[in-house]
Design goal:
alpha/beta; Rossmann fold; 2 domains; 5-stranded mixed sheet; 14 strands; 20% strand; globular
Length: 327
């Protein structure tokens, strides 16, 4: 029987990185302060001591340079895992991401792949200043050639990160920092994979399907529990946003006939809109009510005083679920 550790989500990140670095010498970590300091959230703590400066590389403060260098490394057979300190700092590297990272296989007609994982803490709720709390996963979902993963549990984090590192194509791996240390879970010591593109049913129900990911999974489960006895809520944690597990979305919706999507990103053009459109195209005859989007507002992410109001929390999620069911 496999041994396990009781880990937080950020510890699971570190455990997954270490396991793959021990298994495959081509895997390396790079980014600002990832080496001796162990990263701003300590996700790479101890890796420098174990693997040295050639595989745990402290870089200058230059996001475009970090990502561009990683793309070059990947083109020549390495498996870099660059870290950007906060997802809101990825914008200077956006040209590298969309012009090169997501296109290398197509541009080279399959001669080159870009096996790299671009990691970043994302999302709000930790009272951070500007550019530290954005949820802009839709940017990367929209770009063909990129896979986008957002875990919600320590166990899933290690398994999804392992799959992402082993994938021949580039993965944007966004880690919900609100729950980096919110809870612990048993995580196997040995390496294991959770396939990309497969959602997880976190709670079965018959009245409404609620689709979510990342930190909003816990808030949604809390809302579903609060509604127990009144509304039977099914909660689907998408885990991988691109490719989207459309089968899981449609199968759940056909069972319940009602749906809501919960995400902390702004409502307009968020993934909730794509899910609603997919339901319209694939399961319209099963639909009993409009798809409800419970999301962040179409404003820049606010500072401390309004942060809790901006983020969907269990009360607002409950109200949205009721509105969909009572239509």
């Amino acid at each position: 029987m496999s041994e396990t550790q009781n880990l937080t989500l950020v510890q699971a990140v570190r455990d997954g990185l270490a396991a793959e670095m021990r298994t495959d010498d081509d895997v390396l970590v790079m980014g600002e302060d990832v080496g001796k300091n162990g990263g701003v959230f300590r996700a790479t703590e101890g890796l420098f001591d174990e693997f040295g400066a050639e595989r745990v590389i402290d870089t200058p403060l230059a996001e475009s340079g970090i990502i561009g260098t990683a793309i070059g490394m990947a083109a020549y057979g390495l498996k870099p895992v660059p870290e950007i300190q906060f997802s809101g700092f990825m914008y200077p590297g956006f040209d590298q991401i969309v012009s090169h990272m997501g296109r290398l296989r197509t541009r080279s007609r399959g001669r080159y792949t870009c096996s790299m994982v671009l990691r970043a803490p994302y999302g709000g709720g930790i009272r951070a200043p500007e550019h530290h709390s954005e949820s802009k996963e839709a940017f990367y979902i929209h770009e063909p050639g990129l896979k986008v993963v957002i875990p919600s549990t320590p166990h899933d984090t290690k398994g999804l990160l392992t799959s992402a590192i082993r994938d021949p194509d580039p993965v944007v791996f966004l880690e919900p920092k609100l729950i980096y240390r919110a809870f612990r879970e048993e995580v196997p010591d040995e390496s294991y994979e959770i396939p990309l593109g497969e959602a997880a049913v976190r709670r079965e129900g018959l009245d409404i399907s609620v689709f979510t990911w990342g930190a909003m999974t816990r808030a949604t489960l809390d809302a579903a529990e609060n509604l127990e006895g009144e509304i039977d809520v099914e909660v689907i944690d998408l885990r991988t946003l691109s490719p989207l597990d459309e089968d899981a979305v449609i199968d759940s919706f056909k069972k319940t006939g009602r749906a809501a999507v919960v995400h902390e990103a702004p409502k307009t053009a968020g993934l909730g809109a794509e899910i609603a459109a997919t339901i319209q195209e694939e399961a319209l005859v099963y639909q009993e009510a409009p798809v409800k989007r419970i999301a962040g507002f179409d404003v820049p992410f606010p500072l401390y005083a309004l942060e809790d109001y901006y983020l969907p929390e269990s009360t607002r999620i409950e109200e949205g679920i009721r509105e969909a069911v009572e239509f």
